[in-house]
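Hi Prof. W.,

I finally got the Rrf2 family transcriptional regulator prediction working! I wasn't sure whether to trim anything, so I left the full sequence exactly as given:
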Amino acid sequence: MKHTSHADYALRVLMYLRVAPDGRGSVGEIADAHRVSRHHLEKVVQRLAAAGIVATSRGRGGGVRLAARPSSITVGAVMRAMEGDFAVVECLGPARYCRIAGVCGARNVFSEALDAYFAVLDAATLDQIADNDLGLRGALELTGTGLRGHGSGSSR
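And this is what came out:
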C-alpha cells in the first residue's frame, strides 16, 4: 500500500513543528526546510487544520503550530485525515462490482490486515517518530536551541 504525498508531507510538517525551537513555523519555512512545493504544503496544512491536528494563525507571530501535544497525535489519525481511501481491494470500498464479492474470503483477510496496520499506526505517536530532536533540527537546518515548550524538553 502506498500513501499519497499529502500523507507524507503531513508527517513532515508535524515533525518540523515538533522540533522547531518555538513550536511553530510558516508554510514557507516548512516548505523550504523540506525542499517541497509551498503550494502543495498549503493544501496539506489546510487539511491538517480542518482535522484539528494543527492550528493556524495569520499576522505577526502567526503561522502553523501543533493543536495538541505530540504525545497525543497518532500516526493513524494523521493518515486517516490525509487519505481518503483505504480500500486495498474493491470489496472494502463503497462500490462493489466484483462478481465474487461475498462468496470469497479475500474481504475478511484484507479487512483484518487493514485493522492490524492501523493498530500499529494508532500506537505510534508524533513524539515517537520525531524523537531525535537534534538530528531533525540539523537535517531541517533549524537554528536555535530553545526548547519546544510543548514536548518532553529532550535535546537529543
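Residues 145-156 have pLDDT under 50 and may be disordered. Does that look reasonable to you?

Thanks,
D.
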